[in-house]
C-alpha cells in the first residue's frame, strides 16, 4: 500500500527506544525525514532519524525548543507524533493514592499530558501552514484505570480528550488529529528486567520471565499475546498518511482484545 508520505517531515518524541523508535523507523522506511527527540539519543535512533534532539520533554522549555530545533533541521513539520510518556520507573511509587505525593502527580502529568500540550502548541503554526497531522500516543488505561503508577491513567485520559479537542478545532483548517491507545506493548518498559516490568514482577513475587508469560492471561488479551512496537508504528504511519485522509478525532485501540466493551 502506497502511503503517499515520502518526502514529508516528522517530529517524534520519546523516540530513542520502544514505540517511539519503531515509529521513527517505520516513517523513515516510508521516506519521511524524521527528527527524533528524546532525553537519551541511542545509536538505533541516530541510524533511523534524519536528525536527533536531546531534550527533557517534561519541561515547557524543552518541549518548545524541540520544535524550533526540528524546524531548523528539516525545514518544517508535516507530522507530529507525541509519543513520550510513562516516566522514570525508578522515580515513581507503585503504591496507592495515600502513598503518593504531589510530586509524582506533577511529574507524571508533565510528561504524559503537558509535554504533548506544549509541543503541539509550538508546532501548530507549522502544521497549519503545511496542513499536517498529529498522532498522540495514549493508552487503554485512559478507559480502564490501572492500579499504578498513580496518575498515569488519569494523565492519559486527559491526553485522549486533548486530542479530541484539537481534532474539533483544527480539522476545518486542514490539520488532522488522532489518538492511538495501545495495551501492553513489548517495549523495554515491560521487557527490561531492570525497568518497570521488573518492579511489577518483584511486587507480585514472581520472576520477570513469569510476569511476561502471564500477562496475556492476567490482562485477558484475546489474541493471547502482547502487541509489538512495530504493530503500533504501522498504525501510526497509516493514520498520518493520505490513506487516512478523512480519519480525524478518533481513538484507535491496539491491544489484542484486552478491552471488552464495544
Layout: helices, strands, pairs:
Elements: E1 9-13, H1 18-29, E2 33-38, H2 43-48, E3 51-54, H3 60-74, E4 79-82, H4 102-130, E5 133-137, H5 152-170, E6 176-182, H6 188-191, H7 196-204, H8 208-219, H9 229-240, E7 251-254
Parallel strand pairs: 1-2, 1-4, 2-3, 4-5, 5-6, 6-7
Instruction: Give the class from helix and strand content and strand pairing.
Output: alpha/beta
Largest sheet: 7 strands, parallel
Distance between the termini: 28 Å
Q: From the alpha carbons, calculate the radius of gyration and give it in angstroms.
A: 18 Å
> How many domain regions?
2
The CATH homologous superfamily of the largest domain corresponds to: NAD(P)-binding Rossmann-like Domain
Strand order of the largest sheet: 3-2-1-4-5-6-7
Mean pLDDT: 92
CATH topology of the largest domain: Rossmann fold
Tally of extended strands? 7
Which word captures the global form? globular
How many H/I helices? 9
CATH class of the largest domain: Alpha Beta
Uncertain spans, ≥5 residues at pLDDT below 50?
none
Helicity range of the residues? 40-55%
Which CATH architecture of the largest domain? 3-Layer(aba) Sandwich
What proportion of the residues form beta strands (DSSP E)? 5-15%
> What is the chain-wise order of helices and strands?
EHEHEHEHEHEHHHHE
Amino acid at each position: 500500500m502506497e502511503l503517499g508520505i515520502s518526502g514529508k517531515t516528522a517530529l517524534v518524541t520519546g523516540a530513542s527506544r520502544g514505540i517511539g523508535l519503531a515509529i521513527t523507523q517505520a516513517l523513515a522506511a516510508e521516506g519521511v525525514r524524521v527528527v527524533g527527540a528524546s532525553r537519551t539519543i541511542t545509536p538505533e535512533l541516530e541510524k533511523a532519524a534524519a536528525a536527533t534532539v536531546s531534550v527533557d520533554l517534561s519541561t515547557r522549555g524543552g518541549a518548545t525548543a524541540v520544535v524550533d530545533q526540528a524546524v531548523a533541521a528539516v525545514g518544517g513539520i508535516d507530522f507530529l507524533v507525541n509519543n513520550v510518556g510513562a516516566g522514570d520507573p525508578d522515580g515513581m511509587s507503585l503504591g496507592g493514592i495515600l502513598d503518593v505525593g504531589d510530586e509524582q502527580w506533577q511529574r507524571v502529568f508533565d510528561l504524559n499530558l503537558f509535554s504533548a500540550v506544549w509541543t503541539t502548541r509550538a508546532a501548530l503554526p507549522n502544521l497549519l501552514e503545511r496542513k499536517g497531522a498529529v498522532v498522540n500516543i495514549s493508552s487503554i488505561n485512559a478507559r480502564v484505570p490501572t492500579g499504578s503508577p498513580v496518575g498515569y491513567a488519569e494523565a492519559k485520559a486527559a491526553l485522549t480528550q486533548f486530542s479530541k479537542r484539537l481534532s474539533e478545532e483544527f480539522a476545518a483548517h486542514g490539520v488532522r488529529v488522532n489518538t492511538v491507545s495501545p495495551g501492553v506493548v513489548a517495549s523495554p518498559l515491560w521487557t527490561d528486567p531492570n525497568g518497570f516490568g521488573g518492579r511489577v514482577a518483584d511486587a507480585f513475587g514472581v520472576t520477570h520471565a513469569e510476569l511476561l508469560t502471564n500477562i496475556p492471561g492476567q490482562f485477558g488479551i484475546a489474541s493471547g499475546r502482547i502487541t509489538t512496537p512495530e504493530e503500533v508504528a504501522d498504525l501510526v504511519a497509516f493514520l498520518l498518511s493520505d490513506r487516512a485522509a478523512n480519519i480525524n478525532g478518533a481513538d484507535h485501540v491496539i491491544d489484542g482484545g484486552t478491552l471488552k466493551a464495544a
